[in-house]
Amino acid sequence: MRLDVITIFPEYLEPLRHALLGKAIEQNILSVGVHDLRQWATDVHKSVDDSPYGGGPGMVMKPAVWGPALDDVAQGCGLAALTKELSSSLPHKDKARHDDVEGVDPQRYQDISVREGEDPSLPLLIVPTPAGKPFTQADARAWSNEEHIVFACGRYEGIDQRVIDDAHNRYRVREVSIGDYVLIGGEVAVLVIAEAVVRLIPGVLGNRRSHEEDSFSDGLLEGPSYTKPREWRGLEVPEVLFSGNHAKVERWRRDQALLRTQQVRPELLDGVKLDHHDKKVLGLQ
Ligand code: ADE
């Protein structure tokens, strides 16, 4: 997968070199380019924003800067070709991770993100904005199959809307929000989305079995986990986890997931198929 990020704060994207993403870069599963938007500014002050038409507070990012930046990055040409590749921060060697599942081939998710009338061969442009559609695990799964994702980081009051409208000619465009709160810019949202997507690429995080039990994968939040010691500060690990009975442990895990979801995010249960036992656990019958 190729990731390109366009931002006025390239240093903000430094975390992409570390940990899991750094490992993916090192394994040639991922390559990353972080581009300084100011390269495409043409005036002496390298300005990227201007006052909003119609008045109001803040500044709006200029189409004359964003347009050429998105043109170049879509094709990896012009000024975009001069950007240094992001390198991995640490050598990870071929050490197996604790979550690698032996003897199971990495498998791709089948999901794809193509809307009616869109050309699937175009790169995906993700524009983080609090005014976007909520980013979900289903998006992360679908986007983990992309060859080329470009992130456009807006700041101030956002990017001139015509940039987004025009980008549809060269990209499949997705405006997304990572939550109902307002950040100063899209950079942190890019880190969040990139991590959620890249960990699902086959070979990055063990394999598909490693995330099948994630929160949201079956529509439920994940229940509690425990490790050694068996007793800690007077608190015991639940007895059932020592039973050696796989079916019983799985049933207990699902019960815990159901109860946590009911307590913390009850609205999620509307999208989950519940059988007789599930309903009994939830006190619904
Ligand atoms: N930019 C500013 N706030 C944001 C949010 N909540 N999600 C995505 N991008 C943003």
TrEMBL record:
GO biological process: methylation
Domain spans labelled tRNA methyltransferase TRMD/TRM10-type: 1-75, 123-269
Keywords: Cytoplasm, Methyltransferase, S-adenosyl-L-methionine, Transferase, tRNA processing
UniProt-recorded Gene Ontology molecular function terms: tRNA (guanine(37)-N1)-methyltransferase activity
Catalytic activity: guanosine(37) in tRNA + S-adenosyl-L-methionine = N(1)-methylguanosine(37) in tRNA + S-adenosyl-L-homocysteine + H(+)
Subcellular location: Cytoplasm
Top class in the EC scheme: transferase
Enzyme Commission (EC) number: 2.1.1.228
InterPro entries xref list: Alpha/beta_knot_MTases, tRNA_m1G_MeTrfase_C_sf, tRNA_m1G_MeTrfase_TrmD, tRNA_m1G_MTases_N, tRNA_MeTrfase_TRMD/TRM10
Binding site for S-adenosyl-L-methionine: G154, I178, G179, D180, Y181, V182, L183
HAMAP family per the UniProt record, alphabetical: TrmD
Physiological role: Specifically methylates guanosine-37 in various tRNAs.
Quaternary data: Homodimer.
Family: Belongs to the RNA methyltransferase TrmD family.
Protein name: tRNA (guanine-N(1)-)-methyltransferase
Organism name: Corynebacterium felinum
